[in-house]
Amino acid sequence: MSIPIKIAYLGPEGTFSQMAVIKHFGNDCEQRDCPTIDDVFFAVGNGRVDFGVVPVENSTEGAVNNTQDCLVDSEVRIVGEEILPIEHNLMFSKVAEFENFSAIASHKQSLAQCRKWLQENYPKIRLIECGSNAEAAKLAQDDASIGAIASELAASIYGLEVKRSKIQDLHHNRTRFLVLSNSETEPTGNDKTSILIYTENKPGALFRILEPFENLQISLTKIETRPSKKEAWAYVFFIDFEGHIKDAKVQNLFNRLNASTAEIKVLGSYSVSLS
């Protein structure tokens, strides 16, 4: 009998992170929920689990700064990605009286993503911010006067009844999740590489970073800047681009970048999500 792989994710049970785990690995794995993103990185880095799954960016709310900070500090590798449509649902305890409730609970980002719908339908309702959508579902499970905005998975886990489906304001709302491990991947022919570049605050710094990509005709899929924690007024560039670290063209790219930038950290190469 084979031992199931162990997956850590940002919990508690019923979060979109758990949905990303199920989408990427299926149900035949041991799922371990963690209270924070830092704890997921720690569990992977210390070998307590085989993989970790964390959110890194949302199409409407932007980057998840906590994940980016952990990528800077940790030595774990990105070995995959999963892009999940985010559908928010209003749910209640099965014993609740639907039109007789006093508050709606959810994570602050979920409340923000349903802001217009809430203003149109329940402009005077009290809103409760929770640490996660699953925590809000647990709150609704315990208190029939509170509704929760959460996933259908959370409704199933906590025994809630969905009363309004897909209430998010933007229906192309998606969250990108990273799959973390201590291992590396082999090229598949449809890969993406993520790197960090540290650079000083000097004229032409961004140009010197981007010029090798242009010269080698390597397509960027993402570039984002964060202040560096190493020194004041220095910056970290998070860059995703097409190709695998083992590709000859990418090796050539690194040679050119090493000659023109302060420091490069490879976060990982991995197959592009087809979602």
- Topology-level CATH name of the largest domain: D-Maltodextrin-Binding Protein, domain 2
Helical run tally: 9
Q: Ends: how far apart?
A: 32 Å
Biggest sheet architecture: 6 strands, mixed
Overall strand count: 15
| CATH class assignment of the largest domain | Alpha Beta
CATH superfamily of the largest domain: Periplasmic binding protein-like II
Instruction: Please indicate the percent range of residues in DSSP E strands (runs of 2 or more).
Output: 25-35%
Tally of individual domains: 3
User: What is the C-alpha radius of gyration, as a whole number of Å?
Assistant: 21 Å
- Tell me what the CATH architecture of the largest domain is: 3-Layer(aba) Sandwich
Task: Describe this protein with a few key phrases.
9 helices; 30% helix; Alpha-Beta Plaits; alpha/beta; 5-stranded mixed beta sheet; D-Maltodextrin-Binding Protein, domain 2; 275 residues
Overview of this structure, please?
This protein is α/β, with parallel strands linked by helices and 275 residues long. The chain has 3 domains: 6-86 and 173-181, D-Maltodextrin-Binding Protein, domain 2; 89-164, D-Maltodextrin-Binding Protein, domain 2 (3-Layer(aba) Sandwich), CATH 3.40.190; 195-271, Alpha-Beta Plaits, CATH 3.30.70. It has 9 helices and 15 strands. It has helices spanning 16-25, 37-45, 65-73, 108-113, 115-121, 133-142, 152-158, 205-216, 248-260, and strands spanning 6-10, 30-34, 51-58, 62-63, 77-85, 89-93, 103-107, 126-130, 146-150, 160-164, 174-181, 191-199, 220-227, 235-242, 263-271. The strands form 3 sheets. Strands 1, 2, 3, 4, 5 and 11 form a 6-stranded mixed sheet that branches. The protein has a 5-stranded mixed sheet with strand order 8-7-9-6-10. Strand 13 (220-227) and strand 14 (235-242) form a beta hairpin. Helix 8 (205-216) packs antiparallel against helix 9. It starts with 5 loop residues before the first strand and ends with a strand.
